[in-house]
Design a protein that fits this description.
The chain is built from five helices and 16 strands. The chain is mainly beta and about 350 residues long.
């Protein structure tokens, strides 16, 4: 089954996402009465927009629950398409760390205002959550104002949540999490498998995926660590629960192939063994006309038995995000396959 449901690995750019002003925002959501639940929404440019069952182009929003432990919320947005129409929509996935503007929220009838910086420093966001508004007529449950920066240009779009929740068109059990600097990830120094098991989530596989073009990250703790954690859970229901609790997002268009022992994997042959294996993977992919946006390695959460021959599997697998459809087709011709649920 093809996984088309995160890690459109963010290819990180330079620049620094600044911390929101402490005068304006607070992580103490208990100071303001409001919903502590997350949710998923379809966002449209116009309020009251109706989804088109034939060709529904929209932005999907996954909003995690508030957590004191994680010092706020996380929002994941990506462009999506559902229906029977044949149209290419690039996900352009982006993640934000949100803090509550408690001063604004106290003055607006129960509505909550969140502000956040994009983890890769390429934008910022304001989310107005009207779910607990008790005295105003509102045009949508959520109103989202997102500014996306690209080099010296920026554009701002305002989007409105539809009553219909966003649901993945494919029930994927693979998810990704854009990691932050300063050890600000939920699992801190703990092994992710053990950490999430203690929270009731059993992971079947984990791995780390890096962008192929890595730039200097900014120094703020809300900025990206140039790395994504990829996990596989047991069911689509568990995947949705993990997304809402921690701000994981779906994995887009990833391919995989098994690694073999004795340095016999294609990306190891004839390359400098002193280089990190992920760099060898990027170099090899470029050499076979299949450039990658990101890549890494995934392994089962529990050890697996393998044979001892050099042609035997190592037990882990390479993970690739092709840069485009041509690169994807080339990898498929070389035996790479979609992630299996």
């Amino acid at each position: 089954m093809r996984v088309h449901a995160f890690v459109a690995v963010t290819v990180l750019m330079g620049g620094c996402a600044s911390d929101p002003s402490e005068d304006a925002v607070s992580s103490d959501e208990a100071m303001v009465t409001g919903p502590d639940d997350g949710g998923t929404w379809k966002l449209y440019a116009q309020p009251g927009a109706q989804s088109d069952p034939q060709c529904d182009e929209h932005t999907a929003l996954v909003l995690s629950r508030f957590s004191t432990e994680r010092n706020g919320r996380r929002a994941v947005l990506f462009d999506a398409l559902s229906g029977s129409c044949k149209k290419l929509v690039e996900p352009q996935q982006r993640s934000y760390h949100l803090l509550l503007d408690s001063g604004w929220s106290r003055r607006h009838c129960g509505s909550l205002r969140y502000v956040g910086e994009r983890l890769d420093g390429k934008g910022n966001i304001v989310i107005i959550d009207h779910r607990k508004n008790n005295c105003d007529a509102v045009e949508a449950e959520l109103v989202v104002e997102e500014t996306i920066r690209n080099n010296d240009e920026s554009r701002t779009q305002t989007m409105h949540a539809a009553p219909e929740a966003w649901e993945p068109t494919v029930e994927s059990t693979w998810l990704g999490f854009a990691m932050q600097q300063c050890n600000q990830n939920p699992w801190k120094d703990e092994d992710p498998v053990a950490y999430f098991a203690s929270k009731g989530f059993e992971l079947e596989a984990t791995g780390y995926v890096a962008p192929s073009v890595r730039h200097h990250a900014c120094l703020s703790c809300v900025c990206s660590a140039n790395l994504n954690l990829v996990v596989k859970v047991k069911s689509a229901a568990a995947a949705k629960a993990l997304a809402l609790e921690y701000g994981f997002g779906p994995v887009h268009d990833a391919l995989t192939t098994g690694a073999t022992q004795c340095g016999t994997s294609p990306w190891e042959e004839g390359q400098d063994p002193a280089k990190p294996e992920v760099e060898r993977l990027f170099s090899w992919a470029q050499s076979v006309q299949a450039p990658l946006a990101g890549g890494g390695f995934i392994k089962p959460a529990q050890p697996v038995s393998v044979c001892q021959s050099c042609s035997c599997p190592r037990g882990d697998s390479a993970f690739a995000i092709p840069k485009d459809a041509s690169a994807s087709a080339q990898l498929r011709s070389l035996g790479w396959t979609d992630l299996e649920n």
